[in-house]
Amino acid sequence: MMRRFPLAVALLAGALCSTHPAQARPFDEAGARQQIKALLALPFATDLVGASKADRFAWVEKRNGVRNILAADATGAPKALTHFTQDDGTDLWGLALSPNGKTLAYVEGGDPEYPDDPSPNPNLSAFGTHQTVHLVLDGGNEIQMGEGWNPTFSPDGQMLAFTQKGSLFLAPVGGAAKEVMTVRGSLTSLQWAPDGTALAFTLDRGTHALVGVWRLKPATMAFLAPALAQDSLPTFSPDGRFVAFVREHTPLTYQSLPKAAFWNLHVYDLTTNTDHVVWTPPAGHGGRFFAPEGSGLLWSDNTHLLFPWEGSGWMRVCRVETATAASPQCLTPDKAEVSSYRLSSDGKTLFYTSNAGNVDAWHAWRQTLDGAAPQRLTQGEAMETDLALAGGSVGVMAASATQTAHPVLLAQGHTEHTPVVPELPANTHFVTPRTVIFRSTDGREVHGQLFVPEGDAKTPRAALVFVHGGPHRQMLPAFNSMGYYSNAYAMNQTLAAQGYVVLSVNYRSGTGYGEAFRTAPDIGRQGASEYRDVLAAATYLKTRPDVDPARIGIWGGSWGGYLTALALARNSDVFAAGADFHGVHDMTRPDKFGLSPAQNKAAHDLEWQSSPVADIAHWHAPVLLVHGDDDYNVDFKESTMLANLLSEQGVPYEEHSFPNERHAFLRMQDWLAAYVWMDTFFARTLGPHTH
Fold it and tell me: What CATH fold (topology level) applies to the domain 45-182?
């Protein structure tokens, strides 16, 4: 790790600290570390899955940085299925339960976003790490099946399939795995036929993706209507006769294309080897395919298919009759988004999570497909953004303003049972963030969460704008269901406890507020219009009497790191300091094949003007830079390049790197170090806290 403390930072901090000497409260780095560590150590649950024929759930719990897998019946106490003890950054993911719930498959190591790339090694193990598939059998015995990912049980629970790059492996449960197929590319999805005689898969070859079927007997492979597109989300009909999938094409330009549609639904008949397009969306809203993470196509019976669509401008679940050209029927409420959805085993009831009624609050719902009104599954204040089904029971992932993500299990959809209840450390006092709405300079309505410290300030406080990454994300007035943003919420609470006013801004290009908000004109490389919302957040803070307008900072990671750097480059007169975690700083891309030299030049000019480095000459506010050097999402050179440019401009900065860490730091101890660096940096650059 490298650290730099330029003289300019020390001089600036000294000047700011002398502003209110009577109210100064020395920054306690040891106390800050203890407070942040206590919140990061809270149990955090993710990857909730259920057994198809038993009321049994499993999930990953990270507690004090250590990951383990727990399982529980819908009304029972949880049982640990793994027994790891170290915060070494080894991820556990890809969970699957056998239909009867007695056997668990999971992946140890690797990176779920980049499963076919080398496994990360943030703990600096001498010989690296591997990504391996494991089975935990009934009784607790564990078997390592081999390197790979995507474990998938057969319908009878007797066989396990998994992949590694272009290889398909099969194994009897409890037996050894055998490679049965290998092709060029990456196998990115698997689904068993209902009778267990075949597997549908997606083969990603970069420029295009194909949907195929592997038949166990005889051992043969076939591709379904191969084309020049990105095919994905294959799913068998209940009788196994049909495979439905999505076919997408990608536009080359940034131009608005209101007359075009870029995807359609296909159904392939395996008995006649014929493919037909079930439905193509009209141009306009929903003309580009977009789906909630982890969700896809669902057959309610052999002739009706459920799919996600934004035809009204909002992410909804819709149903189409596959044998006719009839228009789809959208099932979930309009003017609301869906973040996850599942179908009951009899195909008659849809379960989903949605922000219906309040775009800043998510809850779980049940809705029969006969047109009945939706019913909320839970009645508490917690947010629910994901769910799983197990037998006749429902499990939701819940989080609140004071509780990290945890499973809530509803036996047969009624009685609530919470196997693990996260409890705050002693003497922890959270502020209750409240939703605020303000407008950008072009009139765009922007939502955010405001964290106001308890008590009245005798003098105006320092303030911080937080910008999430993605950018397809939404922050809420609660802990987040993603570990990255759960940590960010905990840090914003810590900053508020220390006396900062914090505003977390849901800028345009994020999710939760409809397609027009997510795909707003001129966002990102097309002109960075979302920065108007970030600047509007600072303007809102300036209007508050409890905020010192000269002491407003900004922080964020990934796309939030990009916007942090853009804020400091364009408006060091507004933002007095910033913390940039693994941000993008030069938005220009290589030439696109198929565009003319003039078109590529115009695109590059726009990308450059949207980049922080384009305004580097105006940057003078101090910045903290933190980046892991094994980042597959944002190239590490983005930060090394920025450090070089800041040096040339004489801009004060502090720099840190984590050797072998990924984009979302895998070790809690690295998040802790990074947040303490940031806390100390803002204490130095934004001045003292006030009482």
Answer: Neuraminidase (2.120.10)
